[in-house]
TrEMBL record:
Belongs to the nitronate monooxygenase family. NMO class I subfamily. It comes from Micromonospora globispora. It catalyses: 3 propionate 3-nitronate + 3 O2 + H2O = 3 3-oxopropanoate + 2 nitrate + nitrite + H2O2 + 3 H(+). Keywords: Detoxification, Dioxygenase, Flavoprotein, FMN, Monooxygenase, Oxidoreductase. One of its GO terms (biological process) is response to toxic substance. This is Propionate 3-nitronate monooxygenase. It holds the Pfam family NMO. GO terms for molecular function: dioxygenase activity; nitronate monooxygenase activity.
Length: 334
């Protein structure tokens, strides 16, 4: 890396091969997002980015289900069913679906065809997975949200940590979705984790400009992880509906919600969150599968109030520009 910036893995569409290639060409580092993809699609993306000849990483979701009872699931599905009617969706009768996002197949792929870095989110992978990936030649990173999680990750013998503050957009990487760690400034969290483990750290959450980069590096981070700032990049796969919402001056805040997926995540406030967040049960990935057709239909229809508008607290700084320009502006004054 020439620059202390890492493009975060943004599952569900925003992270693309083009985005990873553009970030890498600028001298930064990029992750591909394996989440919600078939293993064959992940393999194709790895091959495409590998052909560019620059280091990259792949992020994988650790199976960490948050169970939801049939009665609570059905109650919530019925409660939100009116939102799908306009799109011809019968949410009230949607099945309660649990899965592990093709965990074993994705790990097998990464052991067979090792990449420079593998990162994990949502929990601790089994020790033998970390061992096998490291033996294959990959460096292994784990996402943590407090010092206690960092200590558990360090015991697995990982190479480094992604330290995520509560200011990050999208899903929190917390191991305990029912009780996420209290909010803490990113620089303070980085310093605490570094003191706890001594491991190299990538700092994630709320990065909105060069001042945030400087603060994270001064606290001991090796680099910052940037996601929200790249959502409007020319090379990202972010939907037009999501892009427009990020630029909409009427959107005045981000909030933490489980209304869309049953797991805490930070997003731009919208009508769906206002109506249903207080009633949404914990339940991941069941609620993710329940609302996914609604979110897809709403995004296609240009309806931002029924889409998960993931965004960190630095969303105001996100702009439409080439990824190389966005990354360069973050580090030009360092």
């Amino acid at each position: 890396m020439d620059l202390p910036v890492v493009a975060a893995p943004m599952a569900g569409g925003p992270t693309t091969v083009r985005l990873a290639e553009a970030v890498g060409a600028r001298g930064a580092f990029a992750f591909l997002a394996a989440g919600y993809k078939q293993p064959a699609a992940v393999a194709e993306e790895i091959a495409a980015v590998r052909a560019a000849g620059r280091p990259f990483g792949v992020n994988v979701f650790v199976p960490a289900p948050v169970p939801v009872g049939e009665a609570d699931f059905r109650r919530y599905a019925t409660r939100i069913s009116g939102e799908g009617t306009r799109y011809g969706l019968d949410l009230a009768d949607a099945p309660l679906t649990e899965d592990d996002d093709h965990w074993a197949e994705k790990v097998d792929l990464l052991v067979r065809e090792p990449v420079p870095v593998v990162s994990f989110t949502f929990g601790l992978p089994p020790a033998d997975v970390v061992r096998d990936l490291r033996r294959a030649g990959s460096r292994v990173l784990l996402t943590v949200t407090d010092a206690a999680e960092a200590a558990g990750a360090a015991e697995l013998g990982v190479d480094g940590l992604v330290v995520q503050s509560g200011d990050a957009g999208g899903h929190f990487g917390t191991f305990t979705p029912a009780s996420p760690a209290p909010a803490r400034p990113l620089a303070d969290l980085v310093a605490a984790v570094r003191a706890q483990t001594g491991l190299p750290v990538l700092a994630a959450g709320g990065i909105g400009g060069a001042d945030d980069v400087r603060a994270a590096l001064a606290a001991g981070a090796t680099a910052v992880l940037v996601g929200t700032l790249l959502l409007r990049a020319d090379e990202s796969g972010t939907s037009a509906t999501h892009r427009d919402a990020l630029a909409d001056p009427r959107r005045d805040r981000t909030v933490v919600t489980r209304a869309f997926t049953g797991r805490p995540a930070r997003a731009l406030r919208n009508d769906f969150i206002d109506r249903y967040d207080a009633e949404a049960p914990l339940g991941y990935p069941a609620l993710h599968h329940l609302t996914r057709p609604l979110r897809a239909a709403a995004a296609q229809a240009g309806d931002p109030d029924r889409v998960h508008l993931w965004a960190g607290t630095g969303w105001r700084a996100a702009r439409a520009a080439p990824a190389a320009e966005i990354v360069g502006d973050l580090t030009r004054s360092l």
